[in-house]
Amino acid sequence: MKSELMRGLLVSDFNIENLSAYLRNDADEPYVQCAVAPYGQVAQTLLDPSLPCWRSELDFLVVWTRPESILQSFWGLLAGSEVDEERIGKEVDDYSQKLLLAKDRASVMFVPTWVVPALHTGHGALDLAPHVGVSRVLMEANLRLLKNLDRASSVIPLNTPKWLELIGEKSFNPRLWYMGKVPFGNELFKAATRDIKAALRGIRGRARKLVVLDLDDTLWGGIVGEVGWQNILLGGHDPLGEALVDFQRELKALTKRGVVLAIASKNEETVALEAIRNHPEMVLRMVDFVGWRINWRDKAENIADLVASLNLGLESTVYIDDSQVERARIRDALPEVLVPEWPADKRLYPHALRSLDCFDKPSLSDEDRRRAQMYMTERRRCELRSQAGSVDEWLRTLDLCLKVEPVQESNLARSTQLLNKTNQMNLSTRRMTEQELLAWASLENHQVWSFHVSDKFGDSGLTGLLSLETAGGRARIVDFVLSCRVMGRKVEEAMLHVAIAWARSEQIREVYAQYSPSARNKPCYDFLQRSGLRCQTDNVFVWDTSQEYPLHHSVRLIHDSHRQPGCCPLPVTPHQP
Description:
22 helices, 38% helix, Aminopeptidase, 5-stranded parallel β-sheet, Rossmann fold, 9-stranded mixed β-sheet
């Protein structure tokens, strides 16, 4: 699938054309087109929305400055003066306010943090001294800047010192500064490009969510089927064993960021699972894996089957294997799967995993932190379903509860994340920032509801979003979004019931949904075809509100009583026994 083009503006007090070129020409998605604001006019650009550079609709904004040009007190410090903490704090606050004034002119704003100028070699032991230490003063200024920007979720600070640490001496090139007012070396601009693009992928819901792992010589050393689980290399006083334990720790840490783990291994299942359950040095246990395919079938078939069973897409998947042959097979058979090159030296495994930027995203929700547990709970649901005589019987035993509430400040962050990350059950696949969604919801004749799903096994969290726009006695479903985790449990039908019941209460004669096809949202089209709505054209589905839309007997609806000002109440719909 060809990536959409994203448009950005770069604002800086130095020559930033090199970053613009790297962003435009970098081969990784998303593809971007960059404009550059007038050189050195940071304050003027941020304060004046009428400038020509703001006329285009912008997906992202980069504001990158040098502290010595923004903070007069810091300039004085470099010249040997002491710093007045109150004065430099006010200068940081003034700059922060300018940034916040401009934040809504793009979907997201990136602000690289300040670093000590390249030509300043430091004052040795005085670098961290109060009032005169250049490094200390800049650390405190950066911390104050970060706290000020915490108020705006669409402003994302970038860790410039990390780039310097990774690149070392190539971070700066004095010749570039004197010849073209370029304060950094090209390697640093490349690092910035990688982080900006990774963040843009995360914002667009394209961060990877699943790591599928080989076992032998990947999670542990040796072939368990030959040496037995007692003799695999893992932990102990061995450099390779210690590295493999650290690799597992890094993988487990990923699960706290919303990434789930699975296994695809050519092995005897009982032998492999015995190693995971019994080896004392295993960090990852069975509860850490949401699924596995351990057999002698082709790994590409196993991975495709495993990913489908988890209701994820191949484009959400990373595959890690020590075997060059298996990596090549997956790249060839499943090109959507990311298969990173993997080091032969097991001591490099932890670093190789930490170096992947495909998991980066700008925010972390409670649902992200609980994703692994949610998949475990889903496995229990599936086990119950296999025991039930019919789908209706299974649904009846779930005790499914759907809590409906307007989108408001308390659920805005998760609602926006769901809108931007969901691809399969997504009617229009439009993407919005928190501010844009809240502004849209506040308009007259607009309604936006969130849906919180739970059952007897646990809480799936805020997993649904529906918006309506009314005009001329008709209500158009603009957004119909549902997480793949809860698809197929009559939640989709319950969402339609809510929309149509509200329309009936407002004497609206017709509700319709216009499907906008994308590369990945065909499940939404398939649902609309079987939903009972009348297919008016290929992509328009209609319901005449003279008839009720039925609510499945297994679903219990709860309407939140705390409503956003100006939002019409939902009709109370009794649970049908």
